[in-house]
Amino acid sequence: MKRSLIIFALALAAQPAIAADAKKGEQLAQQQCAACHGKDFVTAVDPTYPKLAGQYVDYLEKALRDYQTGARKNAIMAGISKPLSRDDIRNLAAYLSSLPGPLNNEKR
Amino acid sequence: MKLSRILLLATAATMSLAAAAQEKKTGAPAGAAQAPVSACIGCHGIPGYQASFPQVYRVPKIGGQSPQYIEAALKAYRQGDRNHPTMVGIAKGLSDDEIAAVAAYYAQRGR
């Protein structure tokens, strides 16, 4: 009994509360983001737009939240980010961070 | 006392050697503005490094990023459109030429 309880607790702990859904993120990203950031999220239509493929998931979430609150000021991104829910942001970030790309923080 | 002094000297020597090696690698032509990236690598040169203030998240990967975006980002910090305190402080100390040099340096470090 005790053991099964422990196993149950461990199973719960191993599962993130609600896992981000990269598949949903992909749909949303291709609809809302790809036109400017590029289908592959490496080749943006304007070089002042960042590459997003392979960026850290937590940084992407923070950036979108900051655009929503206005902590980060950009007229286009303010409009794009406004209707996104918390789950939308998590799903988008999960998808974008999973993509292959040149970004890295390696010291060489 | 003596040992700590030797250690200090050894550390300093290692650091200047590392700096020299780093300079060699960038291969900047003589006379070109040296990118002041010493201010960057403490955070952006460590995979997985986390900013701890004001929120905890990993500092973005900037190697391989578009140079025009890096420039835009640094200028946004400089003029207050972005507000991360560390980055605002760093960007305010950079001239336009230095920003361009930093952007070029990181842009060519794609994976």
Task: Walk me through the topology.
The complex is a heterodimer of chains A (108) and B (111).
Chain A: H1 2-14, H2 22-32, H3 34-37, H4 57-69, H5 75-81, H6 86-98
Helix pairs in contact in A: 2-6, 4-5, 4-6
Chain B: H1 2-26, H2 38-44, E1 50-51, E2 57-58, H3 67-79, H4 85-92, H5 96-107
Antiparallel strand pairs in B: 1-2
Helix pairs in contact in B: 3-4, 3-5
Task: Give the total of domains of chain A.
Answer: 1
Oligomer class: heterodimer
Instruction: Give the averaged pLDDT of chain B, no decimals.
Output: 82
Number of strands of chain A: 0
Estimate percent helicity of chain A: 55-70%
Helix share, percent of chain B: 55-70%
The major pleated sheet of chain A works out as: none
Structural class of chain A: mainly alpha
Rg over CA atoms of chain B: 16 Å
- Euclidean distance between termini CA atoms of chain A: 54 Å
* CATH overall fold name of chain A: Cytochrome Bc1 Complex, Chain D, domain 2
Quick one: overall form of chain B? globular
- Examine the secondary-structure arrangement and name the CATH architecture of the domain at 35-107 in chain B: Orthogonal Bundle
What is the count of helical runs of chain B? 5
Segments of chain A where pLDDT lies below 50 for 5+ residues? none
Strand order of the largest sheet of chain B: 1-2
Low-confidence stretches of chain B: 19-31
Record field, number of beta strands of chain B: 2
- Structural class designation of chain B: mainly alpha
**What is the CATH fold-level name of the domain at 35-107 in chain B?**
Cytochrome Bc1 Complex, Chain D, domain 2
